[in-house]
Amino acid sequence: MKSLQKFREEIDHIDKQIVELILKRAEFASEIGKYKKENHLSIYKPDREVKIYENIKKYYNEFYKNNIVEHKFPLEALLHIYRELMSGTIQMEGGAKIGYLGPPGSFSHVAVQAAFWKNYSINSI
Description:
By secondary structure, this protein is mostly helical. The chain has four helices and two strands; from the N terminus they run αααβαβ. Helices cover 67% and strands 6% of the residues. Strand 1, helix 4 and strand 2 form a beta-alpha-beta unit. The N and C termini lie far apart (59 Å).
């Protein structure tokens, strides 16, 4: 049986790989942002976001179909991770400006924050 230290070392190694892949993904997002600006395209594309979520669900299901485990990582948590990744990359691409009606703390303000997370420019209109 592996020691606790060995498990932690393996997780640290995987974390390093994850960070490197996220930063590599971010480099591509930056290039996409440049392309969008040069071609006068919208930064935020809801249909692309939906497609990414569909892909993540597909990858998740494929993984667990091929790997029988005692406890599955929650799909909702994985989707939240990707929501944050997309939020950060959209900001890198130049950001999207999101408007809501009402004062800060209003239902519309809270709904926008829940839908678009923290890396967007969110303003009352």
